[in-house]
Every structure is written in C-alpha cells, then in structure tokens.
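Here is the promised in-class demo. Please do not try to memorize the tokens; focus on the logic of going from shape to residues.
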C-alpha cells in the first residue's frame, strides 16, 4: 500500500497569483483535498480528478480527523486553509490530534506544512507599508479564547506601541468586540492613529478604508476583514499607510548624514548600552525631576532609573541624585538597620497615582507574617514585605537621604527618607545611615584594618 501523507497548505489570501508555487504543487500532488467550502471554491480549478471534501465552518476538528483517516489509507491529503495554515488555522489542531493519537515525526505518514501569505501581510501590501516596524496580531474571536485574555493582549500591545493586526474583528453575533478593542487601544494611543480596514483582500469584493482609531468601530467591518492599527509613528500620505522603519532616528532625511551622536552600523545612543546615559542626561537637564518622574518619562520601571543613577561617574553625573544598590544577600539586614535611623518620611504610591507621605519612626516598623506594618492612632501602614525585591540608598545632594525599595517588576514599593528637623538631619541618625550604607551596599568597602 502507498504511504499516506498530510500536506497542511496555506493558499494565501485568495487570488491565485498570491499562492506559493509549493502550495499549488502540494494541491496537485494530493489525492484528497479537504477544506472549508469557501476555501475549496478559491482553488476549484486545481481540483480536477481529486476527491474533494467540503466542510462547514464549525467542522474544524473533523477536517483534521478526516485528513488523518485518509492518510492512514495510504492517500496524499491536502488540508487547505486561507492565508497561512499555521495562523489561526488548521496546522495546530492537526498536530494536536496526531500527537494525541500517538503519531510522531518518525511515523511513515509524513506531515508537511506549506506556508502561505497570512491576511495581515496581504492586507498590509494593499495599503502601503504599515508593518515596517514591530507588529503583532490579535484575534478578537472569543469562541475559543476568554475575553480577559484578549483584553490583556490588546492592552499589552497598545502599551508596547506595536502595530496591531486584528483578525476576526466582527461577525453577525460578535459586534461589540471591536468597540471594546477600540476603547482599550485609545487608552494608550491617539484617536488620530491611522487604521486600515481591509475587507476581502485579493478577493472579488475587496474593499479598503483608511480611517482613524476614533472612527474604526463605526466602519464597515465583517467576517472577512483584517484591521491594521498603526503605532505612534504610523502616518497616511497620498492614500498610503506607512510605519517608519526608524531611519530618521539616526539619519537626516534630507542629507542622509548620520545625526550627531549616532554611528552607522552601531546601536543608537538610546540603545541598550546608551539609554541609561540618556537617563542621567535627563536628570541633569531637568534638575527638578524626581526619579519617579524620570521613570514615567522613559516609561521604564523605577529600578532601571536607579540602576542608571548608580552608574553615574564624575564626568556623567545623574543631576542631584546618587544611589547605591543594597547587596541582595544583605537585604534582610535592612530592617534592623532602618530601625536606627530615627524619624522617617514613608512615601507610598498607589498605581492610580495617589501618594501618601507618613511621618514614622523606623523603630516602630514591625515585621509580622510577611507584612511590614505600623499601626498607631493616626494611620495603619501595611507593606507586603514578600514583594520587596531590591533596594537602593538614594541621596539628593545633601538635601535628602533615604532608601528606595522596589518590587519584582522594579516598581516602587516603599520609599523612606530621613527627616530633617529645622533644616538639618539628626547627626546620629545620619551617621548610622551612612554607616549602614557602607556596610550593606554594593559599593567597594574600605579594607578592614
Ligand atoms: C480564522 S482566521 C484565518 C486566518 C488565515 N489562516 C490567515 O493566515 O490569513 C480568519 C480571519 O482572517 C482574516 N482574513 C482572512 N482572509 C482575509 C482576506 N482575504 N482579507 C481580509 N482579511 C482576511 C479575517 O480577519 C478573518 O476574520
């Protein structure tokens, strides 16, 4: 008996000229072609003499089961899907079924995935060059994915400034998902952000709308539409949606010359190595800025700003700030240390932006069941100490000295400042603070005599 084979074929967006050579070859090779009836229609002229199995939209797993059954009978089976079969397509479910049935890649039944141009690529090509920088795709279908997962992905993509391709944006029953997606994207992106709505790309009813994020949900969107939402740099000019590659960060557009401070073929001055120098530059040029404000400005966790401050040198100071990281092995000694620093101003921030400043005495902080607490007649302060991950001794010239504690994400957990009475610090408290800093921080310690 002939050995069966399963070909998982992506046929591209629909038009034959956008199908790959291998996709056509795979269909030609097949004894049996299985697919959703609309996809079968798109390749009718390639199916002469073949056994054709048309399936409905909901019969997805049946397609994989039938493909395997026919392959076991020694037939070459092409399971076809629009776009790329691995993108919201049948490749995943087919491999899942095969592996659960005990099939392995060493099995005589061979499986080949034939890639195709997925909708986001085809649709992008019709509107210009919207995907020239980092992008992602999110399906708005909640048939198999819980909405909170979809919402979290939308939120992350929006915050990460990705160009976002929305698959399955709307159907007869799912009409509000695109509205909710718009709301989430608008929390992070301008209402003027360009959006391309491509319906039936490369098919007979092709329709393209170039609109803004504010208008998106009101547009004509259906089951066969892909929505491309630009990033913060995407623009529309002469009817083309373009996302810049980033050359303008390095080169002058008119002269082509490298911008001051940049080098061809090297990371940007704001690259991995250089950006922390930019943090120090910002703190020098913005002397009134707090470290928290620097974190907001660069949209990075406070811990990374503190790391930039610790790396300051005499030639590259961090404005008025200096910082030394607490040794991670000595983290637990911090509590004993700060109980000797006398009056402290505890600063606690909520994620929403509220800030509480409380006058406490370090010695009153109690650690119980993982919580660092102070309970008195005026307030109850409870900090989940298990979340404390890293700490820095921080000074703002001679005007402020304290401790900054962050959580595992590098975000602010608790900030404690020594309190200056009538303009000067308690000399003993300051001496103890400076001593603890030299003992607990990562700075080079003076040799023991
Ligand atoms: C189940 S997904 C299948 C995706 C397909 N495997 C691919 O790689 O393009 C169906 C979604 O793909 C998008 N899509 C597929 N073909 C399209 C086309 N010709 N024009 C616009 N969008 C299309 C739409 O968002 C549609 O809701």
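The designed amino acids, position by position:
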């Amino acid at each position: 008996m002939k050995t069966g084979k399963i070909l998982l074929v992506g046929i591209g967006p629909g038009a034959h000229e956008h199908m790959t050579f291998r996709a056509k070859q795979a269909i030609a090779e097949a004894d049996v072609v299985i697919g959703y009836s609309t996809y079968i229609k798109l390749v009718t002229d390639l199916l002469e003499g073949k056994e054709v199995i048309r399936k409905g939209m909901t019969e997805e797993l049946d397609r994989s089961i039938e493909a395997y059954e026919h392959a076991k009978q020694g037939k070459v089976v092409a399971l076809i899907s629009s776009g790329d079969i691995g993108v919201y397509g049948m490749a995943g479910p087919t491999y899942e079924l095969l592996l659960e049935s005990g099939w392995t890649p060493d099995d005589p039944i061979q499986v080949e995935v034939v890639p195709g141009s997925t909708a986001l690529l085809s649709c992008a090509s019709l509107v210009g060059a919207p995907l020239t920088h980092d992008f992602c795709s999110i399906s708005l279908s909640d048939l198999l994915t819980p909405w909170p997962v979809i919402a979290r992905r939308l939120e992350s993509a929006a915050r990460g400034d990705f160009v976002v391709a929305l698959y399955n944006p709307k159907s007869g029953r799912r009409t509000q998902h695109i509205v909710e997606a718009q709301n989430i994207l608008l929390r992070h992106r301008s209402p003027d952000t360009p959006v391309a709505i491509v319906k039936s790309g490369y098919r007979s009813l092709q329709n393209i709308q170039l609109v803004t994020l504010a208008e998106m949900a009101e547009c004509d969107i259906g089951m066969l539409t892909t929505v491309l939402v630009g990033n913060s740099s995407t623009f529309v000019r002469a009817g083309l949606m373009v996302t810049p590659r980033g050359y303008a960060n390095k080169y002058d557009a008119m002269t082509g010359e490298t911008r001051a401070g940049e080098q061809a073929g090297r990371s940007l001055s704001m690259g991995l190595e250089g950006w922390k120098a930019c943090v120090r530059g910002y703190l020098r040029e913005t002397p009134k800025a707090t470290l928290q404000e620097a974190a907001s400005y660069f949209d990075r966790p406070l811990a990374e700003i503190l790391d930039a401050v610790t790396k300051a040198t005499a030639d590259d100071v961090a404005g008025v700030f200096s910082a030394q990281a607490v040794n991670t092995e000595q983290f637990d000694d911090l509590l004993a240390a700060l109980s000797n620093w006398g009056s402290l101003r505890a600063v606690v921030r909520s994620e929403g932006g509220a800030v509480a400043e409380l006058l406490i005495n370090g010695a009153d902080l109690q650690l119980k069941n993982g919580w660092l607490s102070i309970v008195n007649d005026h307030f109850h302060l409870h900090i989940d100490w298990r979340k404390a991950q890293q700490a820095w001794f921080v000074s703002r010239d001679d005007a402020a000295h304290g401790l900054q504690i962050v959580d595992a994400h590098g975000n602010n957990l608790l900030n404690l400042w020594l309190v200056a009475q009538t303009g000067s610090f308690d000399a003993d408290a300051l001496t103890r603070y400076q001593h603890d800093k030299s003992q607990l921080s990562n700075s080079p310690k003076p040799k023991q005599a």
